[in-house]
Design a protein that fits this description.
This protein is an alpha/beta fold. The chain has 10 helices and 8 strands. Strands 1-2-3-4-5-6-7-8 form an 8-stranded parallel beta barrel, surrounded by 6 helices. The structure holds 4-methyl-5-hydroxyethylthiazole phosphate and magnesium ion.
């Protein structure tokens, strides 16, 4: 079933940033700190490794009743019965993915301008990611998105809008002001020594406003 999702603090995983620390323990700490959605993003794993990671992550997200989203891989999202899948502009087309996952799973699409955002909505995306808002070391070759563009997209679209890219405790206020439905972060949570405290810190910046 497609849940009614609280997108406010959306964690995207990256094992490189964890520098050997346990992924599953890190996910749990982040959830305990306030993360409301977890996306598993594995750019270098084999299919088997990705599947096993997703299956194990689902035990944790299920325990806290938090949606699990799989990056890039519709097949793995279906195989582990994740809540949904997140796709970029070079992945399977949104309409094709929707046909594969059905109407009860969440479809998220990465965008970086209004045209792509409207197309994603028309292609039945349940939410869009918009970024990168700030410079980031986590992903190479990002398209830069201004706060003005983010605001414009938010005002023109009626599905949840999630901002991503270089968002941290210092700049998050400028994102919250745009009234987006959530912020997605990697390094400002998983790159910190105390993951639960980092998550709490970011979460309080979102809910304070
Ligand atoms: N998509 C656009 S920017 C980005 C992704 C996956 C990386 C976000 O990572 P961080 O560490 O929060 O900047
Ligand atoms: Mg992708």
């Amino acid at each position: 079933m497609k849940m009614n999702v609280d997108f406010s603090l959306y964690l995207v995983t990256d094992r490189e940033i964890l520098k050997g620390r346990d992924l599953f323990n890190s996910i749990e700490q982040a959830i305990l700190g306030g993360v409301t959605v977890v996306q598993i993003r594995e750019k270098n794993a084999s299919s088997l490794e990705f599947y096993n990671i997703a299956k194990k992550a689902k035990l944790i997200t299920d325990k806290y009743n938090i949606p699990l989203i799989i990056n890039d891989r519709v097949d793995i999202a279906i195989a582990v019965d994740a809540s949904g899948v997140h796709l970029g502009q070079n992945d399977l087309p949104a309409k094709v993915a929707r046909n594969l996952i059905g109407k009860n799973k969440i479809l998220g699409i990465s965008t970086y301008n209004l045209e792509l955002a409207l197309k994603a909505r028309d292609d039945t995306a349940d939410y869009i990611g918009v970024g990168a808002l700030f410079s980031t070391n986590t992903k190479k070759n990002t398209n830069k998105v201004s706060i003005d563009t983010l605001s414009k997209i938010k005002s023109c679209i009626n599905i949840p809008v999630i901002a991503i890219g270089g968002i941290n405790e210092t700049n998050i206020g400028s994102i919250v002001k745009t009234n987006v439905d959530g912020v997605a972060v990697v390094s400002s949570i998983l790159g910190k020594e105390d993951i639960k405290a980092a998550s709490q810190n970011i979460y309080s910046s979102i809910t304070r406003n």
